[in-house]
Design goal:
Two copies of one chain form a homodimer. With 251 residues, chain A is mainly α. Helices cover 53% and strands 0% of the residues of chain A. Chain A binds a DNA duplex (19 and 19 nucleotides) through loops.
DNA sequence: ACCTGAACACCGTTCAAGT
DNA sequence: ACCTGAACACCGTTCAAGT
C-alpha cells in the first residue's frame, strides 16, 4: 500500500536495510511486501501486537521465512518507519519545491507529514522515537532527501546557512511535538474494555481549575492549533531572513 | 533515588498503581523501591534491557516477587513514568507558583522538565509516548497536580479559560517536541559498537546542501534553541491576554 | 506475609533439513 | 532459491508450595 508510484524511492536515501532478493513481483515474498504488511499490521492491531511470528502468519508463512528479507525485528521496525515516512513521496500536494515560495512549501510539507501521522497513528510514535542514523536527522523529517529538499528551499530563498539550519531545527521540533500530541489525544479511550461499571474517571475534586476547564480541555482543537502555530512559526522564521528580503510587517 | 522528600507525592495525583503493601522500610521490597530500581535500571542499561526477570535480579530477588508490588510489566512502566515526572516535586527551582508572574513560573517549569529529560534520557521517550490516562493529559506534563498548577497560574494572571487552555496545549507541544529531539540528538552514536573499519557514515554526495551544512547541523544548539523558542512562545502567549493587561511592546 | 520453583504459553533467532 | 521443523535461550505471568 505505501510507497506507490516511486520506483526507486527507497534507493536514494541510504536505506537502513540490505537489499534482499530482487522483487520477483508475482507470488512469494519480497521486502516491500514484508514491510508493507508490517505497516498494515501495526495500523490494524497496534505496535504491541506485532510479532515476527504473527507477521509471518499475516503473510501466510512461518516467521522464519521473514529473515530472508529483514535481518531481524529491529531492522523491521526501522524499515516500517522508512516506508511510512517515504509515503511523502507519493503525496501530490507536497511536490514541486518552490512554486509558492518557502512559506508555501513548508506549509505543504507540514501538512503532508500531518496526514502521515493521522494515517498511521500507531506507527508515528516509532517515527518519533527510533534512534536516528545521524545526529542531524531529526524526526519526523527522517529522510535525507526531504532534509536536503528543506535546506535547499530555504537557502535558495535567501536564508543564510545558519538561518536554514535553525529553521530546520525549529520546524522539526514543532512537528514532532504537535503531531505526537495530536495522535496521543486521539488514541485515548481505545484499547481493552475494562469494567464498564467503574468509569475509571479520575476524581477531579482536588483540582478545581482543572475540573472547571475540563470540558474546554477535552475539545479537539488540534486542527486549528496546528494551523495557527504553524503560521506563527513561519512568521518567526521570516525574521531570520536578511532585512532586505523581509517584507514590511503590516500592523 | 527519585521522589525524594515528598512523602505523599504519589498520593495526590491519582496513581496508576494500586497501593501495594505499606513500606516496611527496612529490609524487603516496597513499591517505591521497585519503581526506583526500575528507573535506575533504565537509566543505566536502557529501556530495551528492562525485563521483569532482570529487574528482579537487580533487586536480589526472583522476578515473581515483583508481582506483589506491581500488577505487571505495563503497570511497571506507567509507574516509572510517574516516578520520573514526580521528580518535579523535588525540584526547589520550580516551586512557588507565582512569585515572578506567569512568565517566570512557566520558565521555571520548562527548565525543570528539561532537567528531568536530560537526567533520564532513556526514560523520556516513555514519558512522551505512554498513552495518557485522559485526553487532556498532555505529556510531558503528565501530573494532575502540575496541570492544575499551570492552569491556575494562568487564569489567576488574567488569562481567560480559553486562553489558559490554549497556552497549556502550546506549552506541552513545545516541550514535548523540543525535549524529545534534544535527547534523541544526544543518544546517537551510543549503543552496540559495530565494525569500526566501516564508519557507517552515509554518503552525502547526492545531497549537496546537506553536505555543505553538515558541520553546522552537527553542532549542539539545544540549549540556546530552547531558551529562544521558549522566549518566543511566552511572547506569543502574552498576546492571549486581554489587551488591558498586556504591556505595550517596545519598538 | 513474603518469596520461590515449576510450569505455561509465547517470544526472537539459528540452522540443518526439506522441496 | 525459498521455506520449514526443530531447537535454544529467553520472555511475562500464574499458582501451588515453601518458610
Amino acid at each position: 500500500m505505501p510507497d506507490r508510484d516511486t520506483p526507486q524511492a527507497r534507493r536514494g536515501a541510504a536505506s537502513v536495510l540490505p537489499a534482499g532478493p530482487p522483487g520477483s513481483d508475482r507470488a512469494g515474498l519480497d521486502q516491500r511486501r514484508v514491510l508493507g504488511s508490517a505497516v498494515e499490521f501495526i495500523d490494524e492491531h497496534g505496535l504491541r501486537e506485532l510479532t515476527m511470528r504473527r507477521l509471518g502468519a499475516h503473510l501466510g508463512v512461518e516467521a522464519m521465512a521473514l529473515y530472508r528479507y529483514v535481518p531481524g525485528r529491529e531492522a523491521l521496525l526501522d524499515g516500517v518507519v522508512e516506508v511510512v515516512v517515504d509515503e511523502l513521496y507519493g503525496d501530490p500536494d507536497v511536490h514541486l519545491e518552490a512554486t509558492g515560495g518557502w512559506q508555501d512549501y513548508l506549509q505543504r510539507l507540514a501538512h503532508g507529514l500531518r496526514r502521515i501521522a493521522l494515517a498511521h497513528p500507531e506507527v508515528f510514535p516509532l517515527v518519533a522515537t527510533r534512534p536516528p542514523a545521524a545526529p542531524w536527522v531529526r524526526p519526523p523529517l527522517r529522510s535525507l532527501r526531504w532534509i536536503e529538499s528543506f535546506l535547499r528551499a530555504m537557502t535558495s530563498s535567501g536564508f543564510s546557512d545558519d538561518a536554514a539550519a535553525a529553521a530546520y531545527r525549529a520546524f522539526s521540533s514543532f512537528l514532532l511535538g504537535y503531531l505526537l500530541l495530536e495522535i496521543s489525544g486521539k488514541g485515548v479511550e481505545t484499547g481493552p474494555v475494562d469494567e464498564p461499571d467503574v468509569p475509571a474517571t479520575t476524581d477531579l475534586a482536588p483540582y478545581p481549575t482543572l475540573r472547571r476547564l475540563e470540558p474546554l480541555l477535552s475539545q479537539d482543537r488540534a486542527a486549528e492549533d496546528f494551523e495557527l502555530s504553524l503560521e506563527a512559526l513561519l512568521e518567526r522564521m521570516e525574521l531570520l531572513l536578511p532585512p532586505r528580503r523581509r517584507p514590511r510587517r503590516k500592523s
